[in-house]
Structure formats: C-alpha cells, structure tokens
Write a structure and sequence with these properties.
Elements: E1 3-10, E2 21-24, E3 28-29, E4 46-53, E5 58-64, E6 82-86, E7 93-94, E8 108-117, H1 121-131, E9 139-143, E10 166-171, E11 187-192, E12 200-205
Antiparallel strand pairs: 1-8, 1-9, 2-4, 2-8, 3-7, 4-5, 5-6, 9-10, 10-11, 11-12
Bound molecules: zinc ion (2 copies).
C-alpha cells in the first residue's frame, strides 16, 4: 500500500523551530525581503504558512490576499491574488510586518509529518482519524507524493520553463474554525519548479 506523508498538528513545536510546516505568526524571511502585495487590490497579502521540503532543502513562504475575501481571485495560481516566495539561507530574520492590511491571521501552530499506509490521501486521513478519535481536524494536509484533487487536475505550469510544476503539499484550512485559512471550505495545493526560476504556485479548490 502507498505511504502517505500527512501533515499533523504539532502543538509542542517551539515557536522558533523550523518545522516542516508552520502556520501564522511572523514569518522568518531572508534579508531584503519585501512583503508581497495583491495584484488585484494592491493591498498587502496575508502570510499563511512556511512549508519546508526537507529532501530538497527548500522552504516556501505562502501568502494570500484576504483584504476582500473572494474578490481577488485568491484561489487562482496565476491571478496574483496569492504568492509563493522562496525562503533560502541560514540568516533568516522575523519579517517587518506591514502597518496596514490583513497581513497576519489568527493561526499560530506547526505541523509534523506522520506517515500512514493507505490507498490515498482520503484513506490516510480516515485511518489517522480512526486512530485518534475526535481529532480529525488535526490533519493539516499532505507533503510530497501526488495531489488528491477535490475537483479536476489543475497542476499549474512553470512560467519560466513551461513544464508542469512539482506537487509540494496539500493544505487543509486548519485545526479550528477561529484560526482557519479561507479556502472556501476546500483545500489548497502548493507546487514548485526545480528549474532556475526557484518559485512556486498556489491554488485552492472547494
Ligand atoms: Zn487583493
Ligand atoms: Zn520551471
């Protein structure tokens, strides 16, 4: 049976650790980092999370506009309503937060990887929830492997080399309603390219 690497809520991860996935709070960024603006409304985007690909030694910062939820095509990988920025180097520092806008959400938590043998992602979630009664929302997504699409396959192409991007992670909205990310009740998908571009793309379906 395939092995699915689930992202599972890790309440014990120290605030300063570089977890496989960290949601909310102040992002650690490289020197000279510029907080991204939404292409539709021109306001500051909201920082959602940092996802680390340990095998590739890469980290991705994910941002999404939440200034007028639903109005900036923030589900679209190519609209400019969200952004995936590379986060390389050892000299990372807490970002200077923009004074205006919805730059930071309520989430403050990390994830660890738990590998589950299952037929696919949904089956892995069901097996994890069965082993941890009442805690199903603590499954925060999947890292690596193949995407399990809620709708049709929408794998984006690289703007630089034109190839299909590599699936990095699927993200659920979060462990509790009060701090959840807004994917319209659905799930988000993070992709990256291994060419010299070094960037990534983000989309969600519901
Ligand atoms: Zn916007
Ligand atoms: Zn590429």
């Amino acid at each position: 049976m395939p092995r699915i690497d689930l992202l599972v809520l890790d309440r014990a991860a120290p605030e300063t650790s570089i977890a496989v996935a960290r949601f909310g709070g102040t992002p650690l960024v490289p020197p000279g980092f510029a907080w991204p603006a939404c292409h539709a409304c021109h306001g500051h985007m909201r920082y959602l999370c940092t996802i680390a690909e340990q095998a590739q030694a890469r980290r991705h910062l994910v941002f999404m506009c939440q200034n007028s939820p639903g109005m900036c095509d923030e589900w679209n990988p190519d609209s400019g309503g969200n952004a995936v920025l590379p986060c390389e180097g050892a000299d990372l520092l807490p970002a200077d937060l923009p004074a205006q806008g919805n730059a930071i959400g309520a989430a403050r938590h990390a994830a660890r990887v738990e590998t589950v043998e299952a037929a696919g992602y949904e089956d892995a979630c069901a097996r994890w929830a069965e082993a941890h009664p009442g805690r199903g929302r603590e499954v925060l997504g999947q890292i690596g492997g193949a995407p399990d699409w809620l709708q049709g396959d929408e794998t984006p192409a690289c703007d630089h080399c034109g190839r299909a991007l590599r699936f990095v992670a699927r993200l659920e909205e979060g462990p509790e309603h009060g701090t959840a990310m807004n994917f319209g009740g659905g799930a988000a998908y993070l992709f990256a390219c291994d060419c010299t571009w070094g960037g990534g793309k983000f989309l969600w379906q519901c």
